[in-house]
Structure formats: structure tokens, C-alpha cells
Amino acid sequence: MEWFRENRIGVFIHYINIMFMLFIARSCYNIEGFSFLYVTLLYAFLMLVYWFFTGVLHRRIYRFLIVLAAAGLAVLIWFSFQNRIIEYFYSHVVYNIENINNQLFHGSVTYFYEFKPIITLVLPVVVFLLLFFYNNRMTEGVLLLVFMEVVFFWYLDYVDDIKRLIFPFIIISVITYLMNNYKKTVHEFQKKGIYSSLNGKRLIINIVVFSMVVGIIGLTLPQEIQGKDTMSIVERFQNKYAQAQDGVGSGLENIYGLQSSGYADTESRLGGPLTLDKSVAFLVESDKPYYLKGNVKDEYTGSSWKSTVNNYQKLENGEADSLNSIMNRYSSFINEPKQIKIYPEKLRTASFLVPMYTEKISNFNGDIYMNSENSTYMSSSRISKEYTIDFYELDENRISEDYYGMYYLGN
Fold first, then answer.
1. What is the Cα–Cα distance from 277 to 107, expressed in whole angstroms?
2. 15-46 pLDDT, tens per residue?
3. Is there a contact between 389 and 354 (Cβ–Cβ < 8 Å)?
4. Which residues lie below 8 Å from residue 227, measured CB to CB, with a gap of 6+?
5. Is the separation of the CB atoms in 313 and 370 below 8 Å?
6. Is the CB of residue 340 less than 8 Å from the CB of residue 373?
7. Alpha helix segments (H runs only) across 229-365
């Protein structure tokens, strides 16, 4: 009990912050079936190990012998089950990381069972490192770790998720900072022979109340500012260093595809699981329904489709010259130019969603590229703002009647 009284602040503070970090990950990565009970039990087991190592083994020689024995046992297990360990690591860790990455890239949900092996391996290392720094008077380690995670997800464009967690983030951070400094101050006083008679319960209540007040004040501050833009760190890196034709950059990596509709990433074979999502993909302002296209694939490999031509050329003022032949051929069937507006919501793709016979894309702040082979349009990065499309609408019925009438007359 003496050990717990001395370390209860550190145990509680680290538990709260670790659970909050996992809660942030669950919210941003949309993890279904997350088990906080499993993490709590794992943390409790780690605390038992830590208590045995620091509270029971008082002499350093005992600790050294325990570490030496554990290292020897680990080496023995490695050489005895090396192939199984490697197989387990690749099948439960590497494979899950790749699968999670694909799911996140396509905006689909992830599952706790995919994260469970990773958490089981990473959490002990993180906890023991944090407690080591904490007991060596470097008490702000966990606070820095949570802050780094918040910044990480913010720059990965999980802005809305982070905004929703600003209030608990401020409260937990202030409580952590004040409790850590209280612990540090008491220790410094004890080293000098000064013992405090502060009421611990009253102190904790004051800290919690103060933290809530600070959190409420923080919520009133402007939260619309998003930095330079909403592009993720990975996208910026790709746009800066990608070597693609005509400056189209990493747009080809974010071109609209089947996976954008909720299917799994199936580059090698059609099919795969479908994830239902009720989120709004994009909005259209239009007088009536139209078919829109974002990408065209022209070669069937036997199990999937692929594009053989990605010859995108930069347009001047977003206007396409390839409509001249259409205008000349179907001039008697073309109605007056029409206009629709696209408002991207959850869908983030570099492809513009356009109807047939698009003439111009306007109200867009950025370069526009066109593939004249299939009349598809794209930007150099994911599109997050609305844009306007000018296009022509052909009377398909009149074209069909004219074509077949001439065909039968000629025969």
C-alpha cells in the first residue's frame, strides 16, 4: 500500500492520458468494437509488473538478475520458436498495418481486432518508458505524447474529430500538468526536509475545477483556422517530390476509382467487401439528374480494369479545346450551355466529377488537367472546395433517330 500511495498520481495520470490517446485514435480511425476493458486489464497487468520491479525488488542486484533472466528467456524462446514468431509478426502485425492503411486511405471503417496485436506490443514499451521518465523527474512525457498525437491527426486532416475533442483535451492536459508539478514540488520539498500538510482532496478538486474553467474558455476561442490548408502531410510530401508529367503531381495517386464508392482496394481482382456508409459524399446543384464521371478505364486484364492512357495536359482557364469536334459534328443537336456546381463533402479525390461534353471548369483555385483520350479532368491534389462546370447537353434521342435513319436509308 505504501508503494501505491507514493505512485498513485503517476499511475492515474498515465492511465487517463493513455485511454484518451486511444479514444482519439478510435474517433479518427473510426475503429469499431474498440475494447477499453482489454486496454484497462493490460494496463493493470503492466502496473503489477512495474510494482513488482520497483516496489518489491528494492535492491538493484535483484533487478539486474530479473532483467538478465528475462532477457535469457526471451532469447531461448526466440531460438526455439523463431519461425512461428516471425510468422505471427507478419500475419498479425505487418498484415494488419497494411490492411488498416488501405482502409484509412479509402475512408472505410477499421476494427479493433486489427489494432489489438499492435496495441499489445506497443503499449508495454510506451508505459514503461513514460514511467521511467516520470520517476526521473521528467514528468511531462505523457503530456508531450498526447500533444504530438493531436497535432499528428490534425495535420492528417482529421480536423473535425480533433475539434470535437478539444474540451476534454484541454481539461486532461491541464490536470496532468498541475498534478505532475505538484508531485515534483512535493518531492523537492521532501529532499530539503520540508513536508507539506496540504489537503490532497481539496487540491484535486481545485485542479479539476480550474481545468474545466480553462477548457470552457478554450471552447470560446476561434476554431475555424486550419493552418495553411487541409492537405495531409503525406499529400504535401507527394506533391513536393512526386515526378509526374505536366505537374499533375500526386493527383494520379488520388484519382477516383471503385474503392471511392466503398469497395475494398482491388487492384488485382474485381470484387471484395462493401462497406456501407451513410455519410454525404458530395452535393450537386443542378436542374435535373446527370451522370457524372471521374475516371475511365479502357483495358480489361481478365480480373480487373485499368487505364492505359494517363496523358493529362494542363488547361488554360480550365477550358477544354477538344469540344470543337463535338460542336462541329453535333451542332444541330446541341442545346444552350448549362451549368452545375459540385460541393465535395466526405469524398476526397483529385478527379473532377463532370458530365459528358464538359466545356469548362471554373470557380476553382488551382491547376486543372485534362486527359483528351477520355475527357476526364483532375487536379494535382485532392479537391476539397466547390467548383462549377459549364457543359453542353446533347439531345440523344434526336442523334439516335438521325443516325439510324441515315443507316437504313443508306442500306
1. 10
2. 999 999 999 999 888 888 889 999 999 999 99
3. yes
4. 154, 155
5. yes
6. no
7. 233-241, 323-329
| 118 pLDDT higher than 80 | yes
Regarding beta strands 338-344 and 358-362, do their DSSP bridges make them parallel or antiparallel, or are they unpaired?
Answer: unpaired
3-state SS assignment for residue 31: strand
Give the cell for residue 300: 480489361
For the record, the C-alpha cell of 122 comes out as: 506497443
Average pLDDT, integer, range 217-233: 54
Q: What is the pLDDT of residues 377-392, one digit of tens each?
A: 888 778 888 999 988 8
Q: In this structure, what C-alpha cell is assigned to residue 14?
A: 498515465
Termini Cα distance of the chain:
101
Q: What are the counts of helices (DSSP H) followed by strands (DSSP E) for the chain?
A: 13, 11
Q: What is the pLDDT, as a whole number, of residue 389?
A: 92
pTM for this predicted structure: 0.51
Listed residue (337, 382, 384) closest to 360, CA to CA? 337
Residue with cell 491534389: 381
Residues with Cβ within 8 Å of 269's Cβ and at least 6 positions away in sequence, in order, are 303, 304
Closest CA to 237 of 158, 155, 304, 319: 155
Q: Which residues pair with 394 in a beta bridge?
A: 334
* Residue 226 grid cell: 486550419
* pLDDT tens string 177-222: 887 777 777 767 666 777 666 666 666 677 777 777 776 776 666 6
Q: Nearest Cα to 273, choosing from 284, 265, 285, 281?
A: 265
Nearest to 298 by CA among 243, 380, 371: 371
HSE-CB at 171 with a 13 A cutoff on CA atoms is 16
Interstrand relation of 369-371 and 376-378 (parallel, antiparallel or unpaired): antiparallel
Residues 6+ apart with CB under 8 A from 16: 172, 175, 176
Name every residue whose Cβ is closer than 8 Å to that of residue 367 and which is 6 or more positions away in sequence.
247, 314, 379, 380
Q: Give CA–CA dist 157/238, Å, rounded.
A: 15
DSSP state letters, 148-199: HHHHHHHHTT-HHHHHHTHHHHHHHHHHHHHHHHHHHHHHHHHHTT------
- Quote the pLDDT of residue 41: 93
